[in-house]
Write a structure and sequence with these properties.
The protein has one domain: DD-peptidase/beta-lactamase superfamily (Beta-lactamase, 3-Layer(aba) Sandwich), CATH 3.40.710. The termini are close together. It has helices at residues 3-8, 42-56, 89-98, 102-112, 114-123, 150-161, 168-178, 240-258; strands spanning 13-20, 26-29, 35-36, 63-66, 85-88, 147-148, 204-212, 215-223, 228-236. Strands 2-1-9-8-7 form a five-stranded antiparallel beta sheet, with helices on both faces. By secondary structure, it is an alpha+beta fold.
Length: 260
C-alpha cells in the first residue's frame, strides 16, 4: 500500500502512525506533526486519574459536585442533567471515555490539575502532547489548544498494551474502559457488521475518538485474530463528516496492510 498516494486523494491534512506490535512493522505519514488533540486529550487525563489511584491511594468512589457553571456544550450527557449533583470519580471517568463527556472531563481536570496531567505526559515521554485548557469553555482560559501527534498517541497505546502506563494494572483498567468507547471506530473494517458463518472473529478494539468542526481523529488498539495493532489517524482542515469517511478509508487500508 502506498499510504502517501492514498492520503493525497483525500480532503484535509493527515497524521498517521500505525504499528503491528507482533512484527514491529510500521506505517507513518506526518506522524510528528502537532495538531489540536480534541477529545484524544481525555486519554492522558484518564491515565493521571488512575496514576493517583495506583501511587497515591485515591479512591474512585470519591465524589465531585457538578454545578450549573460546570456544564459545557458538546459531547456527553452531563450538560443536560440536574446541576448541584455529585458524581463519583469512577463515573466521571466512564462518561469521559465512553461518551466523551466534556463536562465530566472538565470536572476531572479541575480535580487533578492541568500541570499534573502534563507532568505525567512528560514522565511517559510524550513530549509533543499537552493539556492546555478545559473543554468548550467560553471564553477560553488560554488561547492555546490541547495538542498531540500521531506518534505520541500510538506510543501511548503501545505502552498500554505492554502494561507500561504506570503499571500493568493501570494499563489493564485503561484498556478496559477504552473498549467501552461508544463512538464509531475507524481503525478496523466492518467492526459492527453482523458476523457471517465461518468468518474470522471480528477484531476487538480499545480506542478514543476526537472531533472538531474541521477535525476528526481516532486512536487505539486493534486486537485482531492474528495481530495486535496500535494505530492513530489524525485529520483536520475539512468538514468533520468528510474527514470521518476519509479516516475510515485510511483505517481499513492500514488494517489490511499491517496484517500481512
Amino acid at each position: 500500500m502506498n499510504l502517501n498516494a492514498l492520503i493525497a486523494r483525500l480532503p484535509g491534512t493527515y497524521g498517521v502512525y500505525a504499528k503491528n506490535l507482533h512484527t514491529g512493522k510500521t506505517l507513518a505519514f506526518n506522524e510528528r506533526a502537532v495538531v489540536p488533540a480534541a477529545s484524544l486529550i481525555k486519554v492522558p487525563i484518564l491515565a493521571e486519574l488512575y496514576r493517583r489511584v495506583e501511587e497515591e491511594g485515591l479512591v474512585l468512589d470519591e465524589t465531585v459536585a457538578m454545578h450549573k457553571e460546570d456544564q459545557v456544550p458538546g459531547s456527553g450527557v452531563l450538560k443536560d442533567l440536574t446541576p448541584n449533583t455529585a458524581y463519583s470519580l469512577r463515573d466521571l471517568a466512564a462518561l469521559m471515555i465512553t461518551v466523551s463527556d466534556n463536562t465530566a472531563a472538565n470536572l476531572l481536570i479541575d480535580y487533578l490539575g492541568v500541570e499534573s496531567v502534563n507532568a505525567l505526559l512528560r514522565r511517559l515521554g510524550l513530549l509533543h502532547t499537552a493539556l492546555e485548557r478545559r473543554m468548550e469553555r467560553i471564553p477560553m482560559e488560554r488561547p492555546r489548544l490541547n495538542r498531540t501527534t500521531a506518534y505520541d498517541m500510538t506510543r501511548l497505546m503501545e505502552m498500554l498494551t505492554r502494561g507500561e502506563v504506570i503499571s500493568a494494572e493501570v494499563s489493564r483498567r485503561m484498556v478496559g474502559l477504552l473498549e467501552l468507547c461508544q463512538a464509531p471506530c475507524s481503525l478496523a473494517p466492518n467492526l459492527f457488521d453482523p458476523p457471517f458463518v465461518g468468518a474470522l472473529p471480528r477484531p476487538r478494539v480499545a480506542h478514543k475518538t476526537g472531533s472538531l468542526n474541521d477535525a476528526r481523529h481516532d486512536s487505539g488498539i486493534v486486537y485482531g485474530p492474528d495481530a495486535v495493532l496500535a494505530v492513530t489517524i489524525l485529520s483536520h482542515g475539512a468538514p468533520e463528516a468528510e474527514l470521518k469517511r476519509s479516516i475510515d478509508r485510511v483505517g481499513r487500508a492500514l488494517y489490511h496492510e499491517l496484517r500481512r
